[in-house]
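re the bet — no i am not wrong, look at it urself. input seq straight from the record:
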Amino acid sequence: MAHKITDDCITCGSCQPTCPVSAISAGEKKYVINPDVCVDCGTCVDACPSSAIVPEPKK
């Protein structure tokens, strides 16, 4: 299960350098997490000042 970045993202970029597998990149309106690369470690969650990163619901 990967994480996702919600619309609460303030595009500060704090999450991107914390990702050990480079799954986070700048999107058009917010940062995005590539679910195929995310290893669900959660380091980005702790780095986000706006609590915009949450676990992706199971499908």
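see?? The chain has a mean pLDDT of 95. told u. also The chain is about 10% helix and 20% strand. so pay up
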